[in-house]
Amino acid sequence: MSRSLAMLTAVLCYAAFFASFVYLVGFVAGIDLLPVHVDKGLIAPPATAALIDIALIALFGVQHSVMARPAFKAAWTRVVSPAIERSIYCLAAALCLIALFAFWHPIEGTVWSIEMPALRMAIWGLFLLGWTILFIATWLISHWELFGLAQAWRHFRGTEAPAQPFRTPFLYNWVRHPIYSGFLLAFWATPEMTYGHLLLAIGFSVYIFIGIAHEERDLIGTFGEHYTDYRKRVGAVIPGVGRRT
Fold first, then answer.
1. What DSSP state is assigned to residue 170?
2. Higher-pLDDT residue of 7, 2
3. What would the mean pLDDT of 50-79 be, rounded to a whole number?
């Protein structure tokens, strides 16, 4: 693949992922201006809807976890250029999110509904805080690297990737996985928790904790004692909670 084509591919993949991610915020919030969201979509009996929704969440989880593993990357980069491996990963994640949006089946019924205006505003504030934490955390560990643009840019310029030292900037001093902390807060902070939203929140929470287990094995393999010492001192997604001896 030419350097220019790799760079263009990376930019397009980033744009696709960014658009799907922005839609995810509105999807979880249940913004009625959107064509579909967590409480607005295809109709099916509750049991059927739950099975379809679980399959859609599992599809995203499997893609997100399997494609991130070193063994998969080693095999995959024999097929695609290493310069766009991360970009293709982001594109696949975007396609899984699009499938989730398109085929999601809301499930009627209310778990809780907050009527007090001040409390509703506070909960929406937590919702926005979750997405803000997530966004900030991506920049703390190199946003462009995380989404594949840095790799394509180095390929375009013909430079090598610098060594990545073990760092724990800002939010990473409080929790090991602030990106996941943001996701959890955003998925659970809602003044209107329907059964469909609850299924989405539970499904993504299960995926997150499974993903953490796999991700930390890779991090220990990369950083060794630096990471094992780090997780003795710092909680997983809540400060002080989930420290591992």
1. G
2. 7
3. 94
| Amino acid symbol at 122 | A
Decide if pLDDT at 245 tops 80. Answer: no
Paired with 194 in beta bridges are 110
The one-character DSSP state at 174 is: T
pTM above 0.90, yes or no: yes
* Packed helices 195-223 and 225-233: angle between N→C axes, nearest 10 degrees: 140
Secondary structure class of 161 (helix, strand, coil)? coil
pLDDT at 232: 94
CA distance 33 to 11: 28
Amino acid present at 83: A
Residue with tokens 């009627």: 108
Do 149 and 84 meet the contact criterion of CB atoms below 8 Å apart? no
> 199-232: b or e for each residue (b if 16 or more CB lie within 10 Å)?
bbbebbbebbeebbeebbeebeeeeeeebeebbe
Residue 209, token pair as written in the block: 């904790």
Q: In this structure, are residues 181 and 208 in contact, taking their beta carbons and an 8 Å threshold? A: no
Strands 192-194 and 110-113: antiparallel
Q: What is the DSSP code string of 77-105?
A: TTTS-HHHHHHHHHHHHHHHHHHHHHH--
